[in-house]
Amino acid sequence: MNSEVQNLVAAGKLAAADGEKLSKLEPGTFCLHKSWGVGKVAEWDLLGDRIILDFEGKPGHGLKLSFAITSLEILPAEHLLSRRHSDLDGLKALAKGKVTELIELALKSSGSSMSLDDLERLLKPRIVSEAEYKKWWESAKKTLKTARHIVVPSKRTEPLVLRDSGEKPGGVMVQNFLAKRDLKGKLGVLALIQKDLDLFEQAGTELVPVFQDISDTVRKAWKLHLKDSLQLLLARDELIDAIEGASAPMGSMKVADLVCEARPLLAENIGGLPVSQLGRMYRAFPDAFPERVWVPEILNHLTRTGGRAVAEIAVVLDTNGELEVLSEFLKKSVRNRTLSADLLIWICKERKGLAQSVFSIDLGNAILDAVEDDHVQGGPKRTGRLSDQLSDDKTLIHELVVDTDDESLRNFAKRLINSSVLDELTRRSLLARVIKSRPEMEALMNENAESREDNRLIVSWDSLEKKKAELDELANVKIPHNKNEIQIARDEGDLRENGGYKAAREQQAVLNRMKDQLEREISLSRGTDFANVNTDKVGIGTVVDFQDVATGENETYTILGAWDGDLDQNIVSYLSDIAKVLIGMAPGDEADIPTEDGTGRKVKVLAIRAFNPGA
């Protein structure tokens, strides 16, 4: 005890215990006050019952002895706060050039562990200014990656840690993992292990207890914590893949095992999984459900999971040679209007990729149906993304309508015009794109489409049978042959560099598009033998004799069904420009019929007779 302090104790002016504490607060000692911060004892004034301290920003501050004894915490001279008081410029220099040394000093001053908020309070604003701190810390984290003895947390809620120099970092992390009793805690430590994998000398061997613990934990916990259990297994497999030669212990639970056991609950418990883990999970389906049972199982997920899963499922189907199954599933779903907004958007985005065979005007109608249904039901407006897809994707409408038949396009355009869900500006913009891609639609859309009671195509029985034979050839010969070519090309390996595979896939899209077009045309057709036609005026199923007024030459044209045109035999479809001019005319009427050079020529109808008079 200091001799002067001992005199005060002997005189009864100070308790012996307080005398011991006061003796430690001798001049030159650094200390901390909870209100005034760090200070340094400047001098004693024992006769005046006080000591004088120089606090940061408040020098020469006096405290009563009894108050100082109870309110001041003594700091070692090497403490960061002490250094901040005595050598502020030196610490600023460390912040600029020796970040690791500064952080190590802060951690040693705080018991080897501290929160990022505590670090910020120590350094800001005296050592690092308020304005520069955020940028400084981002730079500091990059520097600290090379400092193996300092653990920088991935989350702000976790502590910054100074490791014992004698500890093996990998061993510490393994012990931390095994000590965790909850799945989320284990996931957090596993993320740190994966981040600092280079800290292990022999990761494959050192992490075996972790791999075994994950398997044991998941077996016990998945029924109550399915999502976390699945994520733990997926993260384990990601870690194993990152370690050369590593593998799970014999008998460990596999992702496929959990997928199979949790089958009824799986789709509802995978929301929020990272995309990489979703892909890994779906790649386990063929093992989880062998002998192609996995195909309908994974297709079922298409309509039950969020948009992030769609692309991953499609890739798995494609990789396993089941792309045609996906194509048929999507076509059926488009026709039945059972696709979610996420799937419809994915098809739009993959229209030149995995969804190429499904991309048609039917998709446009399915999108409009989904938008309208959501509006009627007053749902969560998720299909607002579909409206955005239609309006924001500048080439979508063009690609939907450019090769579409007139009738289907007219119906689609009518839906756009009459839509009560799309705002007027959006409708005008979409219709402008339709007309830009198909200029003839400007006239078609001005027609009174409502007056047409029958939109079906009138066709001869012979032409209808030819169309059906063409469809049969596509469906049963050309498409299966193309599928076989795809499989052969796939077996050659590396699809990214496989030109034959790419060409076969492109041909698949063309064939499927032709098949859709034929199916649509046949469904709209009405076969006839052109019996009982009226010969008072030119119509479908009539033979018309007319005279070129300018030359006096007589010609004969037969007007038949939509697919019967044969100019070599002067047979024209009733949908042709010539037929549209002649239909409705009577003998003696004159009209201008179009010519190939666009000038037109005047003709006079001479006679009309039935194409099939014996019917």
Automatic annotation (TrEMBL):
Signal peptide: none annotated. Pfam families: GreA_GreB (PF01272), GreA_GreB_N (PF03449). The keyword Endoplasmic reticulum does not apply. PROSITE patterns: GREAB_1. HAMAP family: GreA_GreB (MF_00105). Necessary for efficient RNA polymerase transcription elongation past template-encoded arresting sites. The arresting sites in DNA have the property of trapping a certain fraction of elongating RNA polymerases that pass through, resulting in locked ternary complexes. Cleavage of the nascent transcript by cleavage factors such as GreA or GreB allows the resumption of elongation from the new 3'terminus. GreA releases sequences of 2 to 3 nucleotides. Belongs to the GreA/GreB family. This is Transcription elongation factor GreA. The gene is greA.
